[in-house]
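For this section, I looked closely at a protein sequence along with its fold in token form, which I now present.
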Amino acid sequence: MFRFLQPLFRSFETRIDPYPAGEPKTPPRGLLAFLYHYSRPVLPWLGLMSLFTALVSAVELVFFGFMGNLVDWLADADRATVFTDRGAGLVGMALLALIGFPLLVLMQSLVTHQTIFGNYPMLGRWLAHRHMLRQSLAFFQDEFSGRVSQKVMQTALAIRETVTKLTGLLVYVVVYFTGAMFLVGRADPWLMLPLGLWLVGYIAIMWVFVPRLRRVSMSQADARAMMTGRIVDSYTNIQTIKLFADTHREQAYAREAMDDFMSTVHRQMRLVTLLTFTLTLLNALLLTSVAVLTISSWYLEMISLGAIAVAIALVMRIRFMSDWILWEVAGLFENIGTVQDGINTIAREPAVADRPEAKALSVPEGEIRFEEVHFHYGQSLNARQARVIEDLSLTIRAGEKVGLIGRSGAGKSTLANLLLRFYDLEQGSILIDGQDIADVTQESLRQHIGMVTQDTSLLHRSIRDNIRYGSPEASDEAVWEAARRAHADTFLDTLSDPQGRKGLDAHVGERGVKLSGGQRQRIAIARVLLKNAPILVLDEATSALDSEVEAAIQEQLDELMQGKTVVAIAHRLSTIAMLDRLVVMDQGRIVETGTHDELLRQGGLYASLWHRQSGGFLAEDIEDDRAALDVSN
């Protein structure tokens, strides 16, 4: 239906690119500057929309003025000559009503709905989403992912609503009310008085109610985002919830956020009721006063019947418009509240950002140097429990395989995260082939490092997409070969999802929940095998695997490590004992270093851990070991 209009629609729909290229910038925190930041590509079209809105308002006023004149013509006209005398005017107005006005409304609608309404919020979502992806790992660790996504979605929509209401509504009201004052004032200046008093009362109502609605809206936007975040958190961790069989606590956790949201809804609806009653009373006063004045003026033969018709029609129109305008203004300030609330989340500088002069990292060899590194997650340096990494220096030669050993909290994984620059150092530097990682782009840094973590999280996409994530251009043959080398081929043929996709095409569920821990680990290893980066970080890479599969994959890891610089973290000492060098960490410091045999001969902490290990895992009571060693020494 209406296929002949499709090219016209498409022409206007493609006037704005909702996915602009270029590096996204941190938006400013000021309201107007924030709105401008996300509106620049749309501004010419907003101006055109305002122009068409002004023309539509003007033509409607022309219709009202013509109807008043028509009443006066007909009251005095001779039926025999009315078409001769007034025919041209009637035909002209008919053409304006049947052709000119619909075409004007069509152009306004094409610009508004085809060009602006769809592209504008998507432009905001695209820019905001790309900016949020630049935020540091710590940012997302401190926030609900559902809350952040809700802020991005509702803020982008609120930006559009705020700007379009400011431009379109303001133009419409100014043109319409000014024209109305002119039309009634031309008939009798006294008729301008009730309209002026009504305008004063209308502004007073907005002055009282709209700021309150804005404040409630800000609270409501934040409460909605928190409610969404808690619900998404429940769904994301549904296995844990069911495992502990505590749905009542989870319901209470969600209901607490829902109650907070409902309290803002009740506050909003109370204001709505008071606003509706006050506006109805003001409109009734306007209609009554204009009716009394026009009838009195007609009785005194001061105005014509046409002037009465115009005045009453305009008042009725304004009366109906006043509800719409007030709710539009209220909606405007609600959206301003939503935007201001979104600014608090979106308009943040990334904690870890590339420097303006940052260059791409080059790794011809793969030497890693940690030089006097200090890092405490921003905690007090005087607190003993704040020791994470303190004055640590370590050089890992190109192609060397180094194992990091220490109890939980010793700083092993933190050191790996610092190497990947998930956090910026508080003091010191990390260099790869002589290049400070703070001076290179984060993207190029992480492209040269392959990492397998203990807690493997997969994307809710196909297995093919997950394996190929580190090497987007890899062929299906290369993906399958990586899966085979990681021993993932043993279960791939048995996988399917509710949509009937199988094997490499099967989707793994959110965070990979449809796979077992060992299966997720093998997919992660296949991904790193395919990436084939010159630096390899293994953080408990085989911890989720059974002994038989681990032994098989260990052969592939040994092959993968050939010619690479390797940093391996493990509690199971037997898995890293054969590495070139072992580094024992405790409370953010290096306490021992050497080969497996050298450390055993030293009889220190590593030797104690090796002899006390049960089932191949690191003993948790390392404090007792250290105390025993101190006594024996």
The beta strands are 368-375, 389-396, 401-405, 427-432, 435-436, 449-452, 535-539, 565-569, 581-586, 589-594.
